[in-house]
Amino acid sequence: MPAAQTSTPTSAADVAEGLRAAGYLPGDSTALVAFLATKLGKPILVEGPAGVGKTELAKALARYLGRELVRLQCYEGLDEAKALYEWNYRKQLLRIQAQGGEAGWSEVQEDIFGEDFLLARPLMSAIASEQPVVLLIDEIDKTDQEFEAMLLEVLSDFQISIPELGRVESRTHPVVLLTSNNSRELTEALKRRCLYLWLDYPELEHELAIVRLHAPDLDGAIARRLVEVVGMVRELDLKKPPSIAESIDWARALLLLGARDIDSQVFTETLSVIVKHRTDMDLVAERVGVKLSATVDA
Ligand SMILES: Nc1ncnc2c1ncn2[C@@H]1O[C@H](COP(=O)(O)OP(=O)(O)O)[C@@H](O)[C@H]1O
Ligand SMILES: [Mg+2]
C-alpha cells in the first residue's frame, strides 16, 4: 500500500501547481524540466549558486509526488561504502564468535554475507525500495571524479552488483535530482545523462512571492523594499551575494524586530543577516547604506 497519496503529472502546468501546493514556487523552466524528468526517467542536474532552492526543489517534488525522499549528502572523500552499501563488520564478527568455531568456514561465509549483514546506504536504499522514491544526490561537486564515474554506472543501469550476494536491480524507477554549487566542472558524461536546470537568483516579483510565502506576516511594502534592496546588494561585486535563503532570514528578522521601513539605520543594524564576509560588509554599507539614507532624505 502506498504510504501517501501519489501523483502522476500529465503536464508541466500540473507539476507547477503541485509544487506550489507543496510550498515551492517554481520558475517556468523548473516545472518543465521536472515534468520531463518524471516522464523520460532521466535524472535532473540542478546547478546554481548556494541558497537558490536546489535542495528544496527535491524535497518539494517528493512531497508533491507523494514519494519518500532518499538523500545522499556528498562531501569530499565520500566513498562507495557510505554511498552504496557496506558490510556490518561488527555483526559479522559477533556471529562468527557466537558460532564458536563449530561451523566450517564455508558455512560461516554463507551466513555472514547475507542480506541481514548488509548496511544499505542511500543509493542502495533508493534502488532496492519497493515504492518509487525521489533520490537527491546533493552537492555532487564536492566529490571527486572517481565517485562521479561510479555514480554514472549506477544511474545508467539502476542496479548494483554485490560480489558476495549478487545483483540488486531497481524494481521501481526513482526520480533523481543531482545538485551542484558549481565548485568544480562536472564531467561531460554525467551532463549528457541528465536534464539540465540552472537556478539563479530569481526575478524581483518571483523572489517577493517566495519571501511572502516564508514570512507571510511581514508588511507587503517592506517585503517589496527588502527584495529591491537585496537586488541592489547583488549587483555589487561581492564574495558571497545574498541568496533567497538570506532574503527569507532577513524578512523574519525584520518581522521580529518590528521594523516599519528599511531605512539606513535598520539596514546597518541588520546587515549581518544578508552579508557574511567582512569585506563584503564594508562595501555594502558604503554603497547601499549611503543610497538608502539618500532616499530617506529626499
Ligand atoms: N522557489 C522557491 N519556493 C519556495 N521556497 C524557496 C524557493 N527557492 C528557495 N526557497 C527557500 O530558500 C531556502 C534555500 O533553499 P535551498 O534549497 O536550501 O538552497 P540550495 O540548495 O540551492 O542551496 C530554503 O529555505 C527554501 O525553502
Ligand atoms: Mg542545498
Overview of this structure, please?
It is elongated and about 85 Å long. It is of the alpha/beta class and 298 residues long. It has a 5-stranded parallel β-sheet with strand order 2-5-8-1-9, sandwiched between helices. A two-stranded antiparallel sheet has the order 3-4. A two-stranded antiparallel ribbon has the order 6-7. It has helices at 12-21, 28-40, 54-65, 80-83, 89-99, 105-112, 122-128, 145-157, 188-193, 204-214, 220-235, 244-257, 264-274, 278-297; strands at residues 44-47, 69-73, 85-87, 118-120, 134-138, 159-162, 166-169, 175-180, 195-198. Helices cover 52% and strands 13% of the residues. The chain has 14 helices and 9 strands. The mean pLDDT is 92. It binds adenosine-5'-diphosphate and magnesium ion (MG). Residues 24-26, 50-56, 179, 210, 213, 244-245, 248 line the site of adenosine-5'-diphosphate.
